[in-house]
Amino acid sequence: MLLRNSNPIEGLCNGTRLICRGLGEKVIHAEIATGHFKGKQTFIPRIPLESPDKRQCPIPFTRTQFPVKLCFAMTINKAQGQTLDFVGVYLREPVFSHGQLYVALSRAKTGNSVKVLIQPPTVEDKVVTFTRNVVYKEILHLANQ
């Protein structure tokens, strides 16, 4: 994932997800993975980054590095509008709404490509909120045809 707005006109903005196609000493050959510029080939150079907080690091320094970080997960909101080969959804807490759950579960190309991990609810003398799992078997059968 890109960490800086390097060229917004060409789709290279903070948060843009990339696929690394080649790694050189001074440049990364990458392909934009999502959005309007999906599939576009680009090169990401090393850039100078300054120490962020002078209170934590009283001696200022600059280092040259690639403005990227590994990105294996994203929020449900970030996934909206994307189609993915495989989707894993970790619901540590109930989703905000049924619409959010729909977005999470509908990002994969097929239902067989979705895995969901839901933690069992705990009761500690309070009402537990949860997302009810309503299964319409006839729809599942139609979806797998």
Helix fraction? 10-25%
What is the H/E order? Answer: EEEEEHEHEH
What does the average pLDDT come to?
85
Count of helical stretches: 3
How would the global form be characterised? Answer: flat
Q: Low-confidence segments, ≥5 residues, pLDDT <50?
A: none
Say what oligomer this is: single chain
E-strand count: 7
What is the rounded distance between the termini? 36 Å
Radius of gyration: 21 Å
Protein name: ATP-dependent DNA helicase RRM3
GO molecular function: helicase activity
Keywords: ATP-binding, Helicase, Hydrolase, Nucleotide-binding
Organism: Sesamum angolense
Describe this structure in words.
There is one protein chain. With 145 residues, this protein is α+β, with helices and mostly antiparallel strands. 13% of the residues lie in helices and 24% in strands. It is built from three helices and seven strands; from the N terminus they run E-E-E-E-E-H-E-H-E-H. A three-stranded antiparallel beta sheet has the order 1-2-3, with no helix packed on it. It has a two-stranded antiparallel ribbon with strand order 4-5. A two-stranded parallel ribbon has the order 6-7.
